[in-house]
Structure formats: structure tokens, C-alpha cells
């Protein structure tokens, strides 16, 4: 089975994270290592996930001058991660340099993904930072820029997937956080959908954190979501 689920391993400590990881199989999901755990545990923790044969999305959302971002992306490639991301709003030249630096890695290069508009943001949040466009308009703009730079896909909300699929084609990877099974709390997320609706819209990968990690039995919730997607 090739699951579309990427579990966001946002835990305060290694013990809790490995408690989940050691109950599941790499066929059930991929794992996302983000700012919280990478900041406290670094590459040693990443190695532990790799030792357990999981594909890892290193989600550090690089956003800096082109030279700095490209070199960070190269460091991520040297770690052997499956996917890595940067903020598309860092601009075309930043994305192009990041793509170019991966050339020597050939087929072993990680998927390079541009974050468009964070799924926690809505119209007012964009207005407050000087962007006078709806999230959808801004996501489309940044997805086109990301594609022009030659990246493999974008992070967007599932609400934008249908239109991006039409705009950017079948091969462009659409990675969607903001996934909330029916009845689960939105928290800080704003542009959300259920797992089944996101897959129905055409998401390639669903990034799911708290609905799984904060559950009483995370492994069970993961299995249930996988089962709900099996026949779609
Ligand atoms: O790049 C991401 O993964 C990301 C982008 C985005 O726009 N929104 C977003 O929520 N994420 C990440 O996806 C995960 C979502 O977690 P939950 O809201 O707990 O399901 C978190 O680890 C976020 O850092």
C-alpha cells in the first residue's frame, strides 16, 4: 500500500514520538519532521526515523536569500530526506537556485516543494502583511511561480487543490495540510477539509498532525483514516 498520509510528528519529546512510530509500519504513512522536533533533536532523530525505513519530509520551510536557501536544501539532500520545502514567497531566484543545487543528485534528489499560503491564514491575515489578494489568488500566483522555477510541487490547502490541478497539471505534487476529520478541532487551521474530501479533490499527500498525534490512540486513528481512503 502506498498511503497518501504524511503524519506531522509534532511532539514535545522523542519518547512520545517514537511511541507512535514504533506502533506503525512505513506502509501506513510517511513522516514529517518539522521545526519543533528538528530544533530540539536534530539529525540524530532524523536518522532514527530513517533506520525504521520511513520516508521523511523535512519541513523547515526555508525562506532566506537564494544562496542560503540553496545550501540548506543541499544539506537536506545530503541527509537523504524524501521531501523538503521552502517558502515560495522567497521568490523565483531563490527557488531556482535551490532547484539547481539539487542537479548532481539526479534521481536521489528529494522532492522540492514550495509553501504557498499557510493553511492557518485567511483574507485578513494576508491584508495585514500587505497582500491585497484572497488566499486562493495568492496560492495560484505562487504555484505558478513555483512551477516556473522547476520545483516538484506546492504545499497548499485542500480547498485550492481542484483549481491547482487544472492549472498545474497531473504531475505537479499537491501536498495539503489543514486536514480535519469530521468532529476534530480546527485549532489554528483555517482553510480545512476532511481527509476524504481532500483526496477526492485530488491531493497527492495529506499532512495530518494533531488529529492523529493528540488522539488517545494515534496508531488506531491513522489506521481508521487510511481505511476511509482505501476505496476512493
Ligand atoms: O508545510 C507544512 O507542512 C504546513 C504548511 C501549511 O500551510 N500548514 C501547515 O499546517 N503545515 C504543517 O502541517 C502540520 C499540520 O498539523 P495539524 O494542524 O496538527 O494537523 C503542522 O506540522 C504544520 O507545520
From TrEMBL:
Orotidine 5'-phosphate decarboxylase domain boundaries: 4-225
Reaction(s) the record says it catalyses: orotidine 5'-phosphate + H(+) = UMP + CO2
Biological processes per GO annotation: 'de novo' pyrimidine nucleobase biosynthetic process; 'de novo' UMP biosynthetic process
Binding site for substrate: 10, 32, 59-68, 119, 180, 189, 209-210
Class of the enzyme per the UniProt entry, highest EC level: lyase
Functional pathway: Pyrimidine metabolism; UMP biosynthesis via de novo pathway; UMP from orotate: step 2/2
Alphabetized SMART domains for the sequence: OMPdecase (SM00934)
InterPro entries, alphabetized: Aldolase_TIM, OMPdecase, OMPdecase_AS, OMPdecase_bac, OMPdeCOase_dom, RibuloseP-bd_barrel
Protein keywords: Decarboxylase, Lyase, Pyrimidine biosynthesis
Family recorded in the similarity comment: Belongs to the OMP decarboxylase family. Type 1 subfamily.
Assembly description: Homodimer.
Function of the protein: Catalyzes the decarboxylation of orotidine 5'-monophosphate (OMP) to uridine 5'-monophosphate (UMP).
Protein name stated in the entry: Orotidine 5'-phosphate decarboxylase
Amino acid at each position: 500500500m502506498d498511503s497518501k498520509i504524511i503524519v506531522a510528528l509534532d511532539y514535545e519529546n522523542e519518547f512520545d514520538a517514537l511511541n507512535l512510530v514504533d506502533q506503525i509500519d512505513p506502509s501506513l504513512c510517511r513522516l514529517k519532521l518539522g521545526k519543533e522536533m528538528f530544533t530540539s533533536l536534530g539529525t540524530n532523530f532524523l536518522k532514527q526515523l530513517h533506520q525504521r525505513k520511513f520516508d521523511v519530509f523535512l519541513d523547515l520551510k526555508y525562506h532566506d536569500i537564494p544562496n542560503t536557501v540553496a545550501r540548506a536544501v543541499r544539506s537536506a539532500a545530503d541527509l537523504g530526506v524524501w521531501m523538503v520545502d521552502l517558502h515560495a514567497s522567497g521568490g523565483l531566484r531563490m527557488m531556482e537556485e535551490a532547484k539547481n543545487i539539487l542537479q548532481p543528485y539526479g534521481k536521489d534528489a528529494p522532492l522540492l516543494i514550495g509553501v504557498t499560503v499557510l493553511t492557518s491564514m485567511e483574507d485578513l491575515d494576508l491584508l495585514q502583511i500587505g497582500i491585497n489578494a484572497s488566499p486562493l489568488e495568492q496560492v495560484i500566483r505562487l504555484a505558478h511561480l513555483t512551477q516556473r522555477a522547476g520545483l516538484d510541487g506546492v504545499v497548499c490547502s485542500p480547498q485550492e487543490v481542484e483549481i491547482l490541478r487544472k492549472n498545474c497539471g497531473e504531475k505537479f505534487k499537491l501536498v495539503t495540510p489543514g486536514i480535519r476529520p469530521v468532529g476534530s478541532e480546527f485549532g489554528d487551521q483555517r482553510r480545512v477539509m476532511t481527509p476524504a474530501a481532500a483526496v477526492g479533490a485530488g491531493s497527492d499527500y495529506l499532512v495530518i498532525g494533531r488529529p492523529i498525534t493528540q488522539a488517545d490512540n494515534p496508531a488506531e486513528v491513522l489506521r481508521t483514516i487510511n481505511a476511509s481512503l482505501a476505496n476512493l
